[in-house]
Write a structure and sequence with these properties.
Number of strands: 12
Low-confidence stretches: 1-53
Structural class: alpha/beta
Shape: globular
Largest sheet: 6 strands, parallel
Mean pLDDT: 74
Strand order of the largest sheet: 4-5-3-6-8-10
Length: 308
């Protein structure tokens, strides 16, 4: 899913709902002829003439809508082969008082034909209000692996408090006798913001918890942010590389955003002969995905990335 900071929030990201099937054509002078597939995904191009559209604008127009079926076709996996019952477990961690509503989740499954058979439990408080962040997170992790047992971790501490809640969540995960094996987190802030808010030891202390999770075979996947390597506009007006934490931790898997791109080299086996590119303003998007190595002394760049 696509991530973006919530205005005025230190940690919260809000996910734009570009996953809803639609043709995104913000320019009235674009003439697109498209054929929808049977699952309502605009994935087949019949003809696509352009009139007075820049190369960057074409990327926006050409990106199809994303559904669970389209994702499985594009990446060549089948969600129903990611079977539960064999010990596989997954979870999303939510902060900022983000909750999901079961009726919205059921509507998502019905709309996109998701055969959800894995269990879904809640750790913490969940008020069924159906906020965007939490809803998208739980919808898509269960849609990708619908047979896997899932956990919705609700961390109700808001970012305007002095309590280091990402650290508290990671520590609580380590205290569990059987924590979920894959954990998805869509929150973060620049390392400078983190240090200012929680002190100089916060990053190293949190990294210690992530390292312990690694030794237990637990994977933590974290969104890399939505404002490029500088995170300009989200805490800095400089061009200094400013990665977000906890995505910059060496003990997690940082995931940036991509979009389906007709102009990119096609993925092997993709029936539409389409590829993917990083989301960026350069490619006609409204924002640029994040990334970058940590600046924290406790998290130097690994030696195997020296040539990267």
């Amino acid at each position: 899913d696509v991530e973006a900071y919530t205005p005025g929030s230190l940690f919260g990201f809000t996910q734009y709902s570009v996953i809803v099937p639609h043709t995104f054509a913000p320019f009235s002078f674009v003439n697109c002829s498209l054929r929808a597939s049977v699952n309502n995904t605009l994935s087949k191009w019949v003809s696509l003439p352009y009139f007075n559209v820049t190369a960057a604008d074409q990327y926006v127009v050409m990106s199809p809508s994303i559904t669970p079926v389209y994702l499985s076709e594009f990446y060549g996996y089948r969600g129903d082969t990611v079977a539960g019952g064999g010990g596989a477990t997954q979870a999303v961690a939510e902060f900022e008082l983000q909750f999901y509503a079961q009726k919205d989740l059921d509507a998502f499954y019905s709309e996109y034909g998701v055969n959800e058979t894995g269990s879904l439990s809640v750790t913490g408080l969940n008020i069924p209000l159906g906020f965007t962040e939490a809803s998208l997170d739980i919808e898509w992790i269960t849609a990708v692996a619908p047979f896997v047992d899932s956990v919705f971790y609700s961390n109700t501490i808001a970012s305007n408090t002095s309590q280091p809640f990402v650290l508290k969540w990671a520590a609580a995960l380590n205290e569990a006798s059987s924590p979920p094996l894959v954990n998805s987190v869509s929150y973060g802030a620049t390392e400078a913001q983190i240090t200012k808010a929680y002190g100089t030891s916060y990053i190293s202390r949190t990294n210690a918890e992530f390292l312990k999770l690694c030794t237990r075979g637990v994977t933590v996947v974290i969104a890399s942010g939505d404002a490029g390597a500088t995170n300009d506009g989200h805490g800095t007006s400089e061009c200094t590389v400013m990665p977000t934490f906890p995505a910059s931790s060496p003990w997690v898997t940082s995931v940036s955003a991509t979009f389906v791109d007709k102009f990119a080299p096609p993925r092997a086996g993709n029936p539409d002969k389409l590829g993917e590119s990083l989301v960026s303003v350069e490619k006609g998007m409204f924002w640029t995905t994040g990334g970058g190595f940590s600046n924290a002394p406790s998290a130097p760049r690994p030696w195997y990335q020296d040539a990267a």
